[in-house]
Structure formats: C-alpha cells, structure tokens
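Q: Could you write out the predicted structure for this multi-component system? I'm mainly interested in how the pieces pack against one another.
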Amino acid sequence: MSDHFAAFSFVDRITAIEPGVRGRAVFAVPGSIAVFPACLVAEAVGQLAAWIAMARIDFRGRPVAALATETIFHGEVAPGSRLELEVGIESCDDDAVAYSGAARVAGVQAIELKHCLGPMLPVQEFDAPEAMRERFELLCTAGAPGERFHGVPVPRLVGLDGVAGKSARALLQVPRFAPFFADHFPRRPVFPATLLLDSQIRLALDLARVAIGAAATAPLTPRRMTHVKMRSFIAPGQEVVLGAEFVAADADAVNLRLSASTAGRVVATARLDVGAGTV
Amino acid sequence: MANTDITKEEIQAVFPKVAETMADALGCDVEDVKLDVSLIEGLDAESIDFLDMVFRLERAFKVKIPRGKIIENARGDMPEAEFEQKGVLTEAGLAQLRRYLSEIPPERFANPMKVADIPRLFTPETFCKLVIHAQREAPAPA
C-alpha cells in the first residue's frame, strides 16, 4: 500500500459536513499499533479542519499548522479505539483557516483544540490538487480503507544540558527517511508539527518530574498546552534543539515553557501544564 | 480609510488591552509594549507573530480584522502599479503610506522603500488603529 493518504492520515470518513462551517468524521485507531499519542489525536482534529477548509476554497490552498491557542488533554486514546472528530470553522478564506475542534471516544472527550489558525499555502506545493479532490470525495462517501496507519517511530532525544528541575535541552534528530514523509507531504516532506510537540512533551515531562521531585515511575501527563506557535517548517534530516524551562508549579500542575530551534533559530514555541496522575 | 481621523483618546482607550494581547502573543512583559516601539526591531516580532496578534486581537475585541491586509489597506483605492513598482514604493505610494501610518515618525520611512520592509514600521499604535477601524466597521448590535 502507498504511504500517501496512509502513513500520516487520520480521517477515515467524513460523516457530516457543512462546507466551510463545521464537520464531523471518524478515524479507527488500528489495534495493531503500540500507542496512539495525544498529539496524533490533535493531528486528526486538525486534518479534519484542513479537509473542510480546503474544500471551502476548492483546493487552491492547504492550511499548515501555525497557531494553537489552547489544547486540553482529557484522556488517552487506546489503540483499537474509534475516534469521533468534530470541528467548527471560525473563519476560512484563501489566506487562513481558524477553527476549534474536539475528539471523543465512545462519546467521552479525549482532546479539545481551541482557536487554532493555519495559514493557507498553495496546495500544489505539497500535493496534487486533483488527488486531494479525489480523496476528499472518497472520505465523504465510502470512506478510506482502515488499518492504513502503522504507527510512527518515537525519535530518541539526546540530552544536551540543563539545570536540574529548572531547564533542559535535548537534541531531536529528525529522520531523513520515514514513511510519514510520503504523506506529509508528497511534494514537500515536512516533519509534522504534532510529532515535534510530542517530543517536546516528552522532554517537558522529564523536567517536570525532577522539578516536583516525583519518582521516575510516578505518572505525569500533559494537561493543557497553550501558545503553540510554529514559526518554520522542519525538513527531513534536520537537527532540532528542544528546550524546556520550568516556570511555576502549584498543587495541580507544573507550568513549563517549550521551544525548538534549528541552526540557532527558534522554529516553535509553546507552554505546557503537566499534572500528576493519569488524565 | 485614512488613519488620521482617529483621536489620541480612542487610541488610549484600546491600548491597554492591545498591549496585554501583544505581550501574550510575543511572550514579553506588557511594560515592554510601548505605543511607538517597532514590533520587529524592538520586540523581535516575526510574520507569524503578526498573524498571532491579529488572531488574538479579534477575539479580545470581538471584531473581524482582515489578516495580512495592512498593506492593502494602506494602498486603499490607489492602483497597485501607482503604489509600487517591482517591489519598491513609488513616490505616490510612499506618500500614501505616510498618510496611512501617520503615527510613524517621518524619519523611519526609507526612500526608496521596499514593500517587504513596510512591516518594519508597524508599532502597537498601528494595531490600535486596526482595532478601532474594525470596531467602527462592525455592524451595530441588533
């Protein structure tokens, strides 16, 4: 099977759509994969918003991840779950799409995305517009075949430096080759912002654990991510320096400031609340 | 619409919330957001930050601000060929821009000036005026 529309595509079928206004969809998380990280749940919501937005402007442009004002992590999504996706478009034109959305499993909220914004770039830079149109038609009718997604490798983070409990830096080596690059995107491979965020969260959890003196085995989970701002694309093979900085802690959460840089230039920033226990 | 018909009082009325919104977007202290500071040279703003600021200002003030349209607004009814040629403002275009960005001191306008360099002129006051225009153009509540 081709990796296009498979290796990093998280919408199986669009079940309801009001063009340019709102839509609902489903995605069956394959039971064969080991884990389905929260960032991929967010990716699924964003991809539904992208389909609705692209259809609204007749596939002249495609939105790319740029701003996410607030993401609330309500619960983990186990492999084998059926994601119910819902998106409300706040505005959409040839310049950008603004949206909010959510994902549920069996009616229980798993994630909420509030006030996200994706600038539109020419779709032909990333994919064949006719292929996108065909895929959209399929998603709106019969739906895509299931079990297309086979998981993503979790990149190893190499610790660089830091101050225990205060800050940490780690090197993320973006793979030069990976199946998801054939899907994200065929004509211009880009390291998905949500995979970057997943790595940033892993670094932040390690720092938070030290900051609050939690045992290495104590469960810590991301609760809320705000101020996500993607400043630049990350290409295959790039080295990314991730940074996490302790900001504050109270009884409920540890707040951290996150950054990612390539060649000394900041390419992404975010803030994260981490909580003890499972969500 | 010209920016010159906006009063100092109108600007002062919206500035505190504009400054707070910009500080949140830029991750800086609100005290650093002075009315006349250059957003790019003084506060290290990049193009994505402008998008973020407009997105946040829309929600903070419950208005619709056309994204990325400051330069188009500055050009107004002037034909593009009269406003700029090969990415450089014409004399008429520069005069038009000076009128539109009336809050910017004259010495900050280069001559010749590239269209791509116009955002370097933007200050929080520029965005206060965008908000005020949007408030004026918003439909009256039913």
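A: Regarding packing and overall arrangement: The helical segments of chain B are 8-26, 39-43, 47-61, 70-75, 80-83, 91-100, 124-137.
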